[in-house]
């Protein structure tokens, strides 16, 4: 622990100290199958790393991709397994003890899995005391010579002091004697008396040197201790005489005083004058503590035990007045454990459940305190959900310093719990209280008399009436009120209860409605979301299936096609080939028949002749086979040639058909041309005829009229008439004369026709 100098730090904080002491040095631990592995590595005085062992659930989660296998944590200070008790005390709570002596409140609690060494850290062994006997040693060394010798001023309620009358004083002394005599009866030895402790108080911390200014000699101190446990969420006084078999231990209540400070009502306080006496009381209390043998620890603390020291600061008069009360509590928390791992059943299971619940609430409070440092967040801290946190509340809310000691062991078998503890403490370390811790002046201490009525009150503003009007003090100690006040209070409370119930009912209804609506909305959203996802998934599947189906179809088609072509290639034989082959086979059969017949004829001749004949036959057969092969070869060649020829033919056929087409076209053209020419020729003939007629007419006109016979003209044979004769076979006389205009037109057209 690094108990920081609070003068220089404007806030108190939960100091965390790591003490991985237990497992490596445990020799009598019942968990004999625990394996010490190198899963805890102290990197330096503030950092420790945890490597998840193979079989831990952290490692299994890590392999599934959840979380990490290596975790690092920082603490105010880390102590290794070789640390001695004095070193640990010096390095941790010594400063807190000094502050306590000077009037500040302090809380130290040890946290860790079962069997991690929490009790050992606080109490130590008979020969080597833990932090508690050492703290008391520092206290008594500090107030040496200024101890108030009487015990008539006794702690009362949360912060007050009761002045005992002589009868009460006698009773007090008797109680103390009875307590110590019970120790003698049991023959118990003190576990860690001051005589066993090595000196741990340096002269510098003695009270007169610091803290009380120049008037320190004017004060004297009275020291009181109490020891109680919280077992299954019940508070028991460990200094109560242990009841006989049939009797039950009386359960104590936790109440709040007028300042809202929780305290254990009817808790027994014993005045002590030395560390030795304190250690005896510790021993007596331990006897009543709920211990049990578990699989992990044969003396496992099944409860949270709290040893408290109250220091009354008194004036140095004979009839002193109280200047203040400071309190230091050392809490040994029950070990957190996993029930299935520790094979806890029955009563142990119930205890474990309660232990884990209260530790869980402690964790929740610490987490909420951390959150409340952020002003935007809800700062509700569930202190009232467990007895333990109710009692810790003042220390977390500025009534003093809190120091957490985290004990771990290096057993791989408890790795997961150890990791949980480390995570918890990592959160606790971040808690910084903004309320300044106060010393003796924090709240005025009142001295009350036998009946609980105030005798001296330093702060006159606070009275019982104020107490009654304080709505928040619902769990105040009503036993200090008069009967009349009590009745009044009961009536008030009844009314308050009724109103509260009504408002809670309305609130509950409202919350239920809101929750219902929110859940309905959530379900609708979920349904929508799922149906959308379902549709998407369906579409995607369908697409995938279709594409796969297509692929398979194509593959099957290709395969079938390939197979068919292969088969066709293998088995195809043309008709010609087939016929040729058949002829050959027939030929061969005939030949064989002939040979057989020849063989039959030769059978009568001698053996030599037969073998000769056989040889000849064999040769013939060989020759035939050879010929067959050759003919096969020829056939194959022919087949190939035929194929080539077929291809060529197909090509030629195509070519020919093209040419044929072109020729036909040309023929058509020529025919058209011939037709045109024929038309022309016909027209030319007609023209020539008409020219001839005209010529004849002209000639006729030039001559004097001869006798009719003499004037008869001889028919002229021209080129046109020859053509006409050849083409038509008969000369034709045109009777009509074409107009000149028309003939010109035709002549003009001729070149066009000839061009065509
Ligand atoms: N540093 C240490 N050196 C030697 N022995 C130790 C050390 N720490 C613990 N032990 C021994 O280990 C055993 C278990 O320790 P302890 O009872 O203190 O554990 P615990 O954390 O209080 O367990 P639980 O939560 O179950 O009560 C005890 O026998 C104790 O003496």
Could you explain the architecture of this structure?
This protein has 18 helices and 22 strands. The protein is of the alpha+beta class. It folds into three domains: 12-481, Kinesin (3-Layer(aba) Sandwich), CATH 3.40.850; 482-561; 575-755, no CATH class. The strands form five sheets. Strands 1, 5, 6, 9, 10, 11, 14, 17, 18, 19 and 20 form an eleven-stranded mixed sheet that branches. α16 runs antiparallel to α18. The two termini are 125 Å apart. The model is unreliable at 1-14, 21-37, 188-214, 458-474 and 731-756 (pLDDT under 50). Bound molecules: adenosine-5'-triphosphate. Adenosine-5'-triphosphate binds next to α1, α5 and β16. It is found in: Cytoplasm, Cytoskeleton, Spindle. One of its GO terms (cellular component) is mitotic spindle. This is Kinesin-like protein.
In short, what is this structure?
One of its GO terms (molecular function) is microtubule binding. The protein has 756 residues and is α+β, with helices and mostly antiparallel strands. Helices cover 50% and strands 15% of the residues.
What is the topology?
Elements: E1 12-19, H1 22-25, E2 40-42, E3 47-51, H2 57-63, E4 70-74, E5 77-78, H3 85-91, H4 94-101, E6 105-112, H5 118-123, H6 131-142, E7 153-156, E8 160-163, H7 166-186, E9 219-231, E10 234-237, E11 251-252, E12 254-256, E13 262-264, E14 270-272, H8 275-288, E15 291-292, E16 300-301, E17 304-315, E18 322-332, H9 339-342, H10 346-372, H11 387-396, E19 400-407, H12 415-429, E20 432-433, E21 446-448, E22 454-457, H13 464-469, H14 483-571, H15 575-602, H16 607-702, H17 719-728, H18 740-755
Parallel strand pairs: 1-5, 1-19, 6-18, 6-19, 8-21
Antiparallel strand pairs: 1-20, 2-3, 3-4, 7-8, 9-10, 9-14, 9-17, 10-11, 12-13, 15-16, 17-18, 21-22
Helix pairs in contact: 4-6, 6-8, 7-8, 10-11, 15-16, 16-17, 16-18
The chain binds adenosine-5'-triphosphate.
């Amino acid at each position: 622990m690094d108990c920081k100098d609070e003068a220089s730090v404007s806030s108190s904080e939960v100091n965390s100290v790591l003490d991985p002491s237990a497992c490596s040095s445990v020799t009598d631990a019942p968990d004999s199958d625990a394996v010490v592995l190198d899963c805890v590595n102290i990197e330096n005085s503030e950092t420790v790393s945890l490597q998840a062992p193979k079989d831990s659930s952290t490692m299994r989660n890590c392999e599934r991709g959840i979380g990490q296998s290596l975790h690092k944590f920082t603490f105010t200070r880390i102590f290794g397994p070789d640390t001695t008790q004095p070193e640990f005390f010096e390095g941790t709570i010594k400063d807190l003890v000094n502050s306590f002596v000077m009037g500040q409140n302090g809380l130290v609690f040890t946290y860790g899995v079962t069997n991690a060494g929490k009790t050992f850290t606080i109490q130590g062994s008979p020969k080597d005391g833990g932090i508690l006997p050492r703290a008391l040693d520092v206290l008594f060394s500090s107030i040496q010579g200024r101890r108030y010798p009487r015990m008539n001023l006794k702690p009362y309620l949360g912060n007050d002091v009761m002045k005992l009358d002589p009868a009460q004083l006698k009773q007090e002394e008797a109680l103390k004697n009875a307590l110590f005599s019970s120790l003698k009866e049991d023959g118990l030895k003190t576990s860690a008396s001051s005589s066993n402790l090595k000196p741990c108080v340096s002269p510098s911390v003695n009270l007169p040197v610091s803290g009380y200014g120049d008037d320190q000699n004017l004060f004297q101190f009275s020291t009181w201790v109490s020891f109680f446990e919280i077992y299954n969420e019940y508070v028991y006084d460990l200094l109560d005489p242990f009841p006989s078999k049939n009797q039950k231990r009386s359960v104590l209540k936790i109440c709040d005083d007028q300042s809202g400070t929780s305290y254990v009502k009817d808790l027994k306080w014993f005045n002590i004058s030395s560390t030795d006496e304190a250690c005896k009381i510790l021993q007596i209390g331990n006897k009543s503590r709920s211990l049990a043998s578990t699989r992990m620890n044969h003396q496992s603390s099944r409860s949270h035990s709290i040893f408290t020291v109250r220091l009354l600061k008194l004036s140095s008069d004979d009839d002193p007045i109280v200047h203040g009360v400071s309190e230091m509590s050392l809490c040994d928390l029950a070990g957190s454990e996993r029930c299935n791992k520790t094979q806890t059943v029955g009563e142990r299971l119930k205890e474990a459940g309660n232990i884990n619940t209260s530790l869980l609430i402690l964790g929740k409070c610490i987490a909420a305190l951390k959150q409340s440092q952020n002003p935007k967040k809800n700062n509700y801290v569930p202190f009232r959900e467990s007895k333990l946190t109710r009692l810790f509340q003042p220390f977390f809310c500025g009534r003093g310093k809190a120091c957490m000691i985290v004990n771990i062991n290096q057993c791989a078998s408890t790795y997961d719990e150890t990791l949980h503890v480390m995570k918890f403490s990592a959160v606790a370390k971040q808690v910084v209280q903004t309320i300044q811790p106060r010393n003796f002046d924090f709240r005025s201490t009142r001295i009350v008399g036998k009946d609980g009525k105030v005798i001296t009150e330093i702060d006159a503003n606070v009275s019982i009436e104020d107490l009654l009007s304080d709505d928040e003090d619902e769990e105040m100690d009503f036993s200090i009120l008069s009967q009349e006040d009590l009745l009044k209070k009961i009536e008030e409370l009844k009314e308050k209860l009724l109103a509260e119930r009504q408002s809670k009912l309305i609130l509950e209804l409202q919350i239920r409605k809101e929750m219902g609506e929110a859940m309905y909305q959530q379900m609708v959203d979920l349904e929508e979301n799922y149906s959308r996802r379902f549709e998407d998934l369906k579409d995607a599947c369908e697409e995938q299936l279709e594409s796969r189906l297509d692929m398979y179809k194509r593959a099957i088609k290709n395969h079938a096609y390939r197979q068919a072509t292969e088969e066709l290639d293998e088995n195809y034989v043309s008709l010609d080939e087939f016929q040729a082959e058949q002829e050959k086979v027939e030929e061969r059969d005939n030949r064989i028949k002939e040979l057989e017949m020849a063989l039959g004829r030769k059978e009568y001749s001698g053996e030599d002749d037969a073998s000769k004949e056989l040889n000849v036959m064999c040769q013939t057969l060989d020759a035939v086979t050879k010929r067959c092969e050759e003919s096969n070869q020829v056939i194959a060649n022919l087949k190939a040639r035929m194929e080539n020829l077929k291809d060529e033919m197909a090509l030629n056929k195509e070519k020919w058909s093209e040419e044929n087409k072109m020729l036909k076209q040309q023929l058509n053209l020529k025919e058209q041309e011939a037709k045109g020419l024929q038309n022309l020729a016909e027209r030319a003939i007609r023209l020539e005829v008409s020219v001839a007629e005209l010529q004849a007419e002209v000639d006729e006109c030039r001559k004097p009229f001869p006798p009719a016979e003499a004037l008869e003209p001889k028919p002229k044979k021209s080129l046109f008439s020859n053509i006409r004769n050849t083409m038509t076979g008969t000369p034709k006389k045109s009777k009509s004369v074409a107009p000149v205009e028309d003939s010109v037109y035709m002549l003009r057209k001729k070149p066009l026709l000839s061009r065509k």
